[in-house]
Amino acid sequence: xxxxxxxxxxxxxxxxxxxxxxxxxxxxxxxxxxxxxxxxxxxxxxxxxxxxxxxxxxxxxxxxxxxxxxxxxxxxxxxxxxxxxxxxxxxxxxxxxxxxxxxxxxxxxxxxxxxxxxxxxxxxxxxxxxxxxxxxxxxxxxxxxxxxxxxxxxxxxxxxxxxxxxxxxxxxxxxxxxxxxxxxxxxxxxxxxxxxxxxxxxxxxxxxxxxxxxxxxxxxxxxxxxxxxxxxxxxxxxxxxxxxxxxxxxxxxxxxxxxxxxxxxxxxxxxxxxxxxxxxxxxxxxxxxxxxxxxxxxxxxxxxxxxxxxxxxxxxxxxxxxxxxxxxxxxxxxxxxxxxxxxxxxxxxxxxxxx
Length: 355
Ligand SMILES: [Zn+2]
Description:
This protein is mostly helical.
């Protein structure tokens, strides 16, 4: 019911995830063995003795920290909301109205996560954050304001019920597209004033980080999607076994021996946001497709993996006209096809991260 009411079908999603699995099989295997080599050295054990708890993140949905640059120093002492304001103004999608109404700084007892919300679908858009002057909050700010500018620029003459994003993953795609800028070396030069020497190191390491993160997250979403699909098809099966079988197959992690407990139930989305998780991965795919389209057709550059939007109002214009403005008047697949000339595909994600 959740899938159908969000205009998706299990067959459609499975087809995309099957394609993505094939594309990532080999590069993931290679990346995973590199990570295992590093981790087994760190812990002084054999790679074959690595178990889920060695991967830093309990679900291995995020990459372990193997980088050498401290990116936080570029944001130390700076105003995160001012930087974001300058960036979004520079692409012609002003956010001053959002920032003015938002609750941006932490205080005791305050909610610790971040979100963006459209209060009235008539321009009152706000974001909740607890800004600290570091890279993480810069990227969160870019992400949440991505949702924010989407809401703000939906056509106001649409009926209330259509005056929202086309789909939950289309707004997620915009948020991810904007968030990716923080790992872009040219963006850091323009926005955070890093030196040319630092720029070259960041270009290399940033690319590697993005690739590692994208591959790891992609394999993790395979586990989530396939677990949910199978669970709803047959809820009476041994779900504990199903979970660890999928973790072993898709993430290539050795399950703990003799374990028979509902570890899957520790993932909040399975109970709180049923049949939802695949949308994060669809958001990634759409972000890559948009990034590639913008690079080639709006900014006229060949390399779509390094795209800097800073001070390019034509990027904002494209997004406003082709993605934001139609709201939910267009179904997500029609929206993507109209904006980029093709239907949603994992091709651009693969071009960006798999090679
Ligand atoms: Zn988001």
